[in-house]
UniProtKB/TrEMBL annotation:
The lineage of its organism: Bacteria, Deltaproteobacteria, Bradymonadales, Bradymonadaceae, Persicimonas. It is found in: Cytoplasm, Cytosol. One of its GO terms (biological process) is bacterial-type flagellum-dependent cell motility. NCBIfam families: fliS (TIGR00208). This is Flagellar secretion chaperone FliS. Keywords: Bacterial flagellum biogenesis, Cell projection, Chaperone, Cilium, Cytoplasm, Flagellum. InterPro entries: FliS (IPR003713), FliS_sf (IPR036584). One of its GO terms (cellular component) is cytosol. It holds the Pfam family FliS. PANTHER family: FLAGELLAR SECRETION CHAPERONE FLIS (PTHR34773:SF1). It comes from the Bacteria. Belongs to the FliS family.
Length: 146
């Protein structure tokens, strides 16, 4: 088990930043599905910790925003992250699967945009510069989200 954890840590350190963002979104979605399952099975012991982990991931995404890159984009994304955490808190308090479904939909759109941008950037099809095609993918998703 130690070897797996060490491998994951090394992979995270050497990963492309956009791939790390996608990995955070993947983790967020996994925890949300675990929470939904826990609520459906009447297991607060499963749902509560999963929602807490999902909120921690959103907090990590939130604090990693760099307003120097694109202020309007980061402000909009910041608002989405605050909204997502509010929804998760309410979902936890009221065992409300509909709120979890809503944030899953929203965060899935963003995850797909980041993944597409990472692919374009790796293939050299687009620039990562603000305003470049790869940078536009998540910006467009944020503009249409919420």
């Amino acid at each position: 088990m130690r070897g797996i954890k060490a491998y994951r840590r090394a992979a995270a350190v050497s990963s492309d930043p956009m791939d790390l963002v996608v990995a955070l979104y993947d983790g967020f979605l996994r925890y949300c599905y675990t929470a939904k399952r826990g609520i459906g099975e009447g297991s607060p012991a499963q749902a509560g910790p999963a929602l807490s982990k999902a909120m921690e991931i959103v907090n990590e995404l939130h604090i990693s925003l760099d307003p120097n890159q694109d202020e309007a984009f980061t402000e909009r994304l910041s608002s989405i992250y605050v909204y997502v955490n509010q929804q998760l808190l309410q979902a936890n308090l009221h065992r409300d699967v509909a709120r979890i479904d809503e944030v899953i939909r929203l965060m899935t759109e963003l995850r797909e945009a980041w993944a597409e941008a990472a692919i374009k950037l790796r293939s050299g099809e687009a620039s990562a510069e603000p305003g470049g095609e790869a940078a536009a993918e998540p910006v467009e998703a944020v503009a249409s989200a919420g």
